[in-house]
Amino acid sequence: MRDGFPIFDAHTHLGEAAHSGRTWSAEQMLAKMDQHGIDRSLLIPFPVVDDYRKQHGQIAAAVREFPKRFAGAVCLNPFVPRPEFEDEVRRCVEELGFRAIKLQPQYQPLNPIYARSDFLFEAASRYQLPVIWHTGSGAPFALPSLLIVPARRFPDLRIVLAHSGGSSYFLEAIVAAGVCRNIYLELSSLMPHHVLEVLNHVAPSRLMIGSDLPESVETEISKISGLPIAENQKREILWGTAAALFGE
């Protein structure tokens, strides 16, 4: 809780990243959350790891130990053999209790408009998992507009555009959310004036905060808490939307 608002960080990473060398533990995550008044966080593996089952296991252990503070998300290479992909999603949902599936096309170059990619959205639909899709850096497959196609193909699926396209493509994210009610926006990396423009077009019940990296936590929370908007709008962005998608 911070300034009277509960906070749900909808974009964090736990474990070891093979591409950057970053490591982040559950203990470090909790300390950072307590420092900044974050009540709950969605834990996602880094997009490039040496052993995705191990990374999912680390997240599952953190969720078991601190179920009120953490929820888990699936993230693995979409180009592993299809049965292997589907079995890991099943394990993460049925055995580990994960609440979402993440894809980072900057490192996992899956084209969301190809029918070849339907298996990921079908797996998410089967288990009623929101899909979190990195947008912004990593174009073309990270362009927000491309997610309109699967959002229409799978109208009951909830799709979260991580970073809302970033400062370069946030207008695309606004358009995508405007034409598809099942598209949600996670606001990390946007500037405050970008967020205000987003709010001119997208209801706060489809907006959420995320930190992505620990260095950004204070910036991402403060930019929402400092906006000249109504308290109920801040409450939705800081807690309500993510809690509805990923569970309180």
| Shape estimate | globular
Biggest sheet statistics? 8 strands, parallel
Strand numbers in spatial order across the main sheet: 1-4-5-6-7-8-9-10
How many domains? The number is 1
CATH topology: TIM Barrel
Mean residue pLDDT: 97
> What's the β-strand tally?
10
List keywords for this structure.
eight-stranded parallel beta sheet; two-stranded antiparallel sheet; 9 helices; TIM Barrel; alpha/beta; 248 residues; globular
Tell me what you see in this structure:
The protein is α/β, with parallel strands linked by helices and 248 residues long. The chain has a single domain (8-246), classed as TIM Barrel (Alpha-Beta Barrel), CATH 3.20.20. The protein has 9 helices and 10 strands. The chain has an 8-stranded parallel beta sheet with strand order 1-4-5-6-7-8-9-10, with helices on both faces. A two-stranded antiparallel ribbon has the order 2-3. Helix 2 links the parallel strand 4 and strand 5 (70-74). It is globular and about 50 Å long. The two termini are 14 Å apart.
Q: Could you write a compact summary of the structure shown?
A:
The protein has 248 residues and is α/β, with parallel strands linked by helices.
